[in-house]
Write a structure and sequence with these properties.
It is a single chain. The protein has 190 residues and is of the alpha/beta class. The protein has one domain (6-189). It is 31% helix and 24% strand. It is built from 5 helices and 7 strands, in the order H-E-H-E-E-E-H-E-E-H-H-E. It has a 7-stranded mixed sheet, with helices on both faces. Bound molecules: zinc ion.
Length: 190
């Protein structure tokens, strides 16, 4: 499938496309400056060995995807909000994954995946370095998942992948693919 029309793009953000209608990749032009800033804030104190996760709520307002409720957290977590105004439509959340040792390219944690489903996110985004990972709700996404079950499946996959010599980032990505297979679509963002 080629480029999405503006209307279809909006439908994707609103969780109204089926898995067969989703693109392989998407350019998030409308929020790129904001997400880039939040990544830069996340690693602003990296030279002092300090990193901070930043997060935000994704909403559609006046027909456009925007970030709001921008918030900073700790080195390994940030509490994003699902609160929106009546004039806005909740889409999902965005957050960053910085690491003290400069590792980048680390996708969703098991807790991220479980909370995205349990919070009813249409799309969920994680930025780690220049990479943005995206999960998209499909017709196969359940309304809720058991956080513990997701955690067990995820950690087993990460452990096994690393035992086979994969890097931490690649192991997390494989665990993402494995845990979300059949329940979420993962789309490449750039
Ligand atoms: Zn996370």
């Amino acid at each position: 499938m080629g480029r999405l029309s503006k209307k279809r793009r909006l439908q994707l953000f609103l969780g109204r496309l089926t898995s067969s209608e989703l693109p392989q990749s998407i350019k998030l032009t409308e929020i790129y400056d904001d997400t880039s800033d939040l990544w830069e804030y996340s690693i602003a104190q990296l030279s002092s060995g300090i990193v901070t996760e930043w997060g935000a709520t994704l909403v559609v307002a006046k027909g456009t995807l925007i970030l709001k409720n921008i918030v900073s957290g700790a080195n390994s977590g940030v509490a994003t909000s699902t609160e929106v105004e009546t004039s806005e439509t909740f889409v999902g959340t965005f957050h960053t994954h910085p690491y003290e040792d400069s590792t980048t390219g680390v996708a969703f944690s098991s807790a991220d995946i479980a909370s995205a489903i349990n919070n009813g996110e249409n799309i969920s985004l994680v930025q780690s370095g220049h990479k943005i990972f995206m999960l998209v709700k499909t017709e196969y996404t359940p309304r809720s998942v058991d956080v513990f079950n997701v955690e067990v499946a995820f950690q087993t996959m990460v452990f096994n992948a690393m035992a086979f010599g994969e890097s931490f980032g690649d192991a997390v990505f494989l665990a993402n693919r494995s845990v979300v297979s059949n329940i979420w679509a993962s789309v490449v963002c750039w």
